[in-house]
């Protein structure tokens, strides 16, 4: 690890009042200097959305004497990272951590997740980044069992850095501390949500819908994040933001695009 | 190509009234049966956001006698694809096309793009998909020069399919038809937006911000989408939604996660 106290940017997508981010702030303040910039309201499933057609507000919610500086932001998780880096921080942070999300961001959920999009945005800006999620959607989820693992993973990343163009997607099973078997580097399982729209009627008789769905894991591999989590391991997936399917380029080049 | 008239799902992120989607519908109706499900308002830069904490509305805006069935949806581009597949279409479409976007979705823009997220969502659901974008942000952009290329690319994909887990990100340079040099299969250029927040004051004296930024291409490669577009080619990037950085797994496995 570098000799100075590391500068740690903390964000999330459940909003700055969520117990998950409080747990994360607690662990981070044992490691370095913490700055929090998080959404002022829940922003789950916002993906990599940014605010371009609307104004953004930033509120400093910590007092001058507080040990930890905290801002809430009216935008998305990705907006929070952009505002932190460009408007608040005077130097690039050593690490950006996002979470702890109330609920899974394993497998295909990484695509929809505001938590992970914040980490990916930091990665794009050249900041090592980790998204943490606990497989418990309850607002009163117990984050105690995972705190020592969050600290271990964070210290490991501060010590060794991350490969270029890669951020980590860390998911924790909902288990007691002594039931967790350890940390596994995994690939993203092939999975999807099969939607079932719940159709209802407004008091005025107009149809409307609620999105709901069932998670379907199509992947039987034992090297996936889903397998790890089902078997009481913490899953760590290296996530990239170069979306090019390099393996497909040769096949596509055999087609007659320019005839 | 299959013998039946292909079923083509059309969506976008600029909203159902945008000239770009009208151009796309025009080309698609020369190829097969067209169903349009597109946002009822602009949804640019929404990334892979979905609507889970709010209601969704769907409006059939075409008349019974119209040749093309069109729905507007109150949600994001990804919501549109989910609603089309699960609520509107009785069979899986042969192809989903998204766009034509008013503005670039090349390189890192793919991450923020609602246009591309719609295509990616279709891909996740096992539907071949293409996102089309023109490097012209003008509402009155001229889509005529690119129509024959949209048709060519669409027919090629209907004829040959796409590699599993891959959708196409197609960007067109703002050029006359005879100035376009052809179609190139490319990788996503390494690039980012460097933000500059424009700080203003409300009439009541409260600070607010507008997000704005400068696009920075850090990639000198001649095999990238940015290079192709600057040199008057149409760029086609195969995009994947398995975000695992497989190349980084070995390196990460050398760290001491479980000591």
From TrEMBL, chains A, B:
Enzyme class: hydrolase
Entry EC number(s): 3.1.3.5
Catalyses which reaction(s): a ribonucleoside 5'-phosphate + H2O = a ribonucleoside + phosphate
Binding site for a divalent metal cation: 13-14, 44, 101
Entry's localization field: Cytoplasm
Any matching Pfam family: SurE
Keywords for the protein's UniProt record, in alphabetical order: Cytoplasm, Hydrolase, Metal-binding, Nucleotide-binding
InterPro entries, A to Z: SurE, SurE-like_Pase/nucleotidase, SurE-like_sf
Record keyword Amino-acid biosynthesis present: no
UniProt cofactor(s): a divalent metal cation; Mg(2+)
Gene Ontology CC: cytoplasm
Chain coiled-coil ranges: none
GO molecular function annotation: 5'-nucleotidase activity; metal ion binding; nucleotide binding
Domain Survival protein SurE-like phosphatase/nucleotidase: 9-193
Role summary: Nucleotidase that shows phosphatase activity on nucleoside 5'-monophosphates.
Name assigned to this protein: 5'-nucleotidase SurE
Lineage: Bacteria, Pseudomonadati, Bacteroidota, Flavobacteriia, Flavobacteriales
Gene: surE
């Amino acid at each position: 690890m570098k000799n100075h106290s590391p500068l740690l940017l903390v964000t999330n997508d459940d909003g700055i009042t969520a117990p998950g981010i409080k747990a994360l702030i607690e662990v981070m303040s044992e490691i370095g200097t913490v700055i929090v910039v998080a959404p002022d309201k829940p922003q789950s499933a916002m993906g990599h959305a940014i605010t371009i057609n609307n104004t953004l507000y930033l509120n400093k919610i910590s007092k001058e004497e507080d040990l930890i500086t905290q801002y809430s932001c009216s935008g998305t998780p990705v907006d929070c990272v952009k505002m932190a880096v460009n408007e608040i921080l005077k130097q690039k942070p050593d690490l950006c951590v996002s979470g702890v999300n109330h609920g899974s961001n394993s497998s295909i959920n990484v695509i929809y997740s505001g938590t992970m999009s914040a980490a990916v945005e930091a990665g794009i800006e050249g900041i090592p980044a980790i998204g943490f999620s606990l497989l418990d959607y309850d607002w009163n989820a117990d984050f105690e069992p995972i705190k020592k693992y969050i600290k271990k993973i964070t210290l490991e990343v501060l010590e060794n850095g991350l490969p270029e163009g890669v951020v980590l997607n860390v998911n924790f099973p909902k288990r007691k501390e002594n039931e967790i078997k350890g940390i596994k580097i995994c690939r993203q399982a092939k999975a999807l949500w099969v939607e079932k729209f719940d159709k209802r009627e407004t008091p005025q008789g107009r149809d409307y819908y609620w999105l709901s769905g069932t998670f379907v894991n199509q992947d039987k591999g034992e090297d996936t994040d889903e397998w790890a989590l089902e078997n009481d391991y913490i899953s760590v997936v290296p996530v990239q933001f170069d979306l090019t399917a390099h393996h497909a380029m040769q096949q596509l080049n055999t087609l007659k695009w320019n005839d």
